[in-house]
Amino acid sequence: MKKPIIIGITGGTGSGKSTVAKEIYKSIPAEKIAVIEQDSYYKDQSHLSFEERTKTNYDHPNAFDTELLLKHLKMLMNGEAIDKPLYDFEIHTRKKETVRVEPRDIIILEGIMVLVEPEIRELLDIKLFVDTDADVRIVRRIQRDITERGRTIDSVIDQYINVVRPMHMQFIEPTKRYADIIIPEGGFNKVAIDIMIAKVRDIVSKREVIE
Ligand SMILES: Nc1ncnc2c1ncn2[C@@H]1O[C@H](COP(=O)(O)OP(=O)(O)O)[C@@H](O)[C@H]1O
Ligand SMILES: Nc1ccn([C@@H]2O[C@H](COP(=O)(O)O)[C@@H](O)[C@H]2O)c(=O)n1
After folding, report:
1. Does pLDDT of 208 surpass 70?
2. Is residue 22 within 6 Å of ligand 1 at its C-beta?
3. Is 14 annotated in some ligand binding site?
4. How far is CA 164 from CA 45, 53, 91, 112, in A?
5. What's the pLDDT score for residue 67?
6. Other CB atoms within 10 A of residue 143 CB
7. Which end of the chain is more exposed for a tag (fewer CB within 10 A), N or C?
């Protein structure tokens, strides 16, 4: 098998990263593409109490098990399947189950810090930064964290002001400079997504001719 093309999609929380990833995924036959969420590689915290886990800074590079993510990316590049961890945002730690991901021609790696670590960045063939204004992102985050991640409005606002925002300015915003393409307004930017889909389809069809 040829080395897969790895597409990194980053941007702030609520920018539309997973929506962009989903749109690209849906447009390519499932046996050709896989999505890896960096969120799945938040460190396991099952040894800590729930109270202690709520104090973790989840917007710092150290919150991620980058070693395991790198190992898994390299396995996929070598044509080996991985058992991707699953993360539970309600209890701030990994689930017991994992999910098997087979090697594919196209791997999408999506997450807030995929351009932060040089070792990960170097593995990416195409780097996208989804650029959405902070006011829009916080509104989306409030809605999502309350409905899907078991949070209260006060906890989301407190975490955003004290941790998410300053960490975004320190770690995420500066990685825009590494992006090949900056997509304004995230998930429903049809023109940008169609251009990406055309590019990915082109890569897939050229591989089919070569194989
Ligand atoms: N361009 C957009 N316009 C309106 N809503 C959007 C847009 N892009 C994404 N969303 C919505 O915003 C929320 C967060 O998007 P998501 O892709 O999960 O962000 P991220 O993965 O960057 O945190 C989702 O409910 C999604 O449907
Ligand atoms: N236990 C956790 C783990 C992470 N977060 C927040 O998730 C954000 C990243 O995910 P997106 O889907 O929004 O990109 C990040 O900003 C962390 O603050 C959390 O709240 N709890």
Report:
1. no
2. no
3. yes
4. 19, 16, 18, 11
5. 98
6. 12
7. C
β-bridge mates for residue 157, sequence order? none
The CATH topology of domain 5-210 is Rossmann fold (3.40.50)
The dihedral formed by the CA atoms of 16, 130, 67 and 75, expressed in degrees to the nearest 10: 80
- Ligand-binding site membership of 79 (annotated): no
Residue identifier of the C-alpha nearest atom 3 of ligand 1: 188
Nearest ligand for residue 156 CA: 2
Radius of gyration (Cα) for the chain, nearest Å?
17
ipTM of the complex in this document: 0.96
Beta strand ranges found along the chain (DSSP E): 5-11, 33-37, 82-88, 93-101, 106-110, 126-131, 181-184
What pLDDT score was predicted for residue 210? Answer: 52
> Is 185's C-beta closer than 6 angstroms to any atom of ligand 1?
yes
What angle, rounded to 10 degrees, do the helices at 190-210 and 17-26 form?
Answer: 40
Cβ–Cβ under 8 Å, residues 181 and 191: no
Q: Where are the domains of the chain?
A: 5-210
Find the mean pLDDT for residues 60-64: 98
Residue 190 labelled as part of a binding site: no
Mean pLDDT of the 26-44 span? 97
For residue 187, what pLDDT is reported? 66
Rounded mean pLDDT of 12-35?
A: 96
d(CA 11, CA 103) in angstroms, rounded, equals 25
Phi, psi of 144 (to 5 degrees): -65, -45
